[in-house]
Design a protein that fits this description.
16 helices
Length: 428
């Protein structure tokens, strides 16, 4: 089948529409995934679904990609699947729908949705058989795991990287100071495009935040995230916001750069560099920009710049009209190499399926670049407390960048708001 590239301009990624990127380099590890051994709800490839119907909700970026893949396989599977696109607030729309015992059979979302969906009764457990555990990236599956149970089936992994206009900046910068020096030599209006907007954007800022030692929640790989260990006002968190204040004063970071204009600024040559993810690639290509993707450089003498690691996956609605069919379809289609190949090519995302990932990254410079950028990636917290972080930390970043408060003041204010909201969640 001819694989077509999506030509529509994708939305800039926002954490509420998902979240963020698993290191592509980790895809080639073949460790086992979580889930039950005996209660598999998967079907063998080639399942005939006897003309049954399913409804999938996805955001405006993933919807067309998923629809292309569905169209390629639904006739073979004898199933009628309708994909509905939501331009914004998909998670909130889904949670509101399930409160009314409505909603789709399947919703496409990021791992950081898992905690909230499970708490609200909006995600059905997905049991993986031996074949699936061996075939799917274990890190991706663990991102959808809550209290030892898998609640989402990942199909792609992603993380931010540094997209570089090679005509303006021929060499990959080793450090952030190198980046600034090369941008100055290029003579562009801006050094770097990092979408923030008036409300800030912690997701796109996080690689630089982490380089200065900032963190959100304490994390233990065996225990997960600790909502009682909030790091926003740790010394690293304060240092990060102080650095953002400095970069704002130097006009390296700006709240005038937002999700609506970031791609245009980069493709028109306002800066040699853009921090973004795989969703930006089609737009950059369509604009005719010669580019390469590489690691986001950290600050001199500090930690590496660690983006969030993330994924895209399917959640099944426990109250959906066709739950059993949805479970079978998810665990069948996402093991189908034709289906996941279309998702990868159209979406510029590395598959969570290990063999498909190896094939996709072989000779693919863009995928290899995001893999390099993801070598130090850290998991996106999937605990409910993460929902309390985005707005206050975004506000703190914006205030620091704009010079409305010092980094320390911004960090302490944001940390207090997050702690209050987390305590409120516990009391509910």
């Amino acid at each position: 089948m001819q694989r077509k590239q999506t030509t529509s301009t994708p939305l800039l990624f926002h954490p509420r529409a998902w979240g963020a990127g698993i290191a592509a380099s980790a895809l080639l590890a073949t460790s086992a995934c979580g889930g039950g051994d005996d209660d598999s709800n998967s079907s063998d490839e080639g399942t005939d679904f006897d003309g049954q119907e399913l409804v999938i909700w996805a955001d405006e970026t993933q919807g067309p990609i998923i629809n292309d893949a569905i169209e390629a396989v639904q006739a073979d599977y004898n199933i009628d699947v309708e994909v509905k696109e939501y331009a914004e607030e998909l998670q909130e729309s889904y949670l509101a729908a399930i409160e009314q015992d409505e909603g789709p059979d399947i919703v496409v979302g990021a791992p950081d949705w898992a905690g909230a969906l499970v708490s609200a009764g909006g995600a059905e457990p997905i049991f993986l058989d031996d074949k699936q555990r061996d075939a799917i990236n274990s890190t991706a599956v663990s991102a959808y795991t809550v209290d030892g149970q898998v609640y989402g089936f990942p199909y792609a992994v992603e993380n931010l990287g540094l997209i570089r206009n090679t005509e303006l900046a021929p060499e990959q910068p080793e450090t952030f100071d190198d980046l600034l020096a090369d941008a100055e030599a290029a003579g562009t209006d801006r050094s770097l495009i990092v979408p923030q907007g008036k409300d800030g954007d912690p997701y796109h800022a996080y690689p630089l935040y982490s380089s200065m030692g900032g963190y959100l929640f304490g994390y233990d790989p065996s225990e997960g995230f600790d909502a009682d260990d909030i790091g926003i006002d740790s010394q690293g968190g304060i240092d990060a916001l102080e650095k953002f204040a400095e970069l704002g004063a130097d006009d390296v970071l700006s709240t005038s750069v937002n999700h609506e204009n970031a791609f245009e600024l980069f493709t028109e040559g306002d800066a040699p560099y853009l921090i973004s993810g795989p969703w930006a690639i089609n737009t950059v290509r369509d604009a005719g920009v010669d580019f390469e993707v590489g690691a986001i450089p950290g600050f001199d003498g500090q930690e590496p710049a660690a983006p969030f690691l993330g994924a895209q996956g399917f959640y099944v609605n426990p109250e959906g009209d066709n739950k059993a069919t949805a479970l079978d379809f998810v665990t069948t289609a996402l093991m189908d190499e034709e289906f996941i190949d279309i998702l990868a090519v159209d979406g510029n995302r590395v598959p969570a399926h290990l063999e498909a990932a190896e094939s996709y990254t072989d000779g693919n410079d863009v995928a290899a670049g995001f893999a390099a950028a993801g070598e130090d990636a850290i998991p996106m917290p999937n605990i409910p407390a993460m929902g309390a972080v985005w707005e206050p930390l975004g506000r703190a970043i914006a205030d620091a960048v704009d010079g409305a408060s010092t980094g320390e003041e911004a960090a302490e204010t944001a940390a207090q708001v997050v702690r209050e909201q987390v305590e409120s969640q516990k009391a509910e």
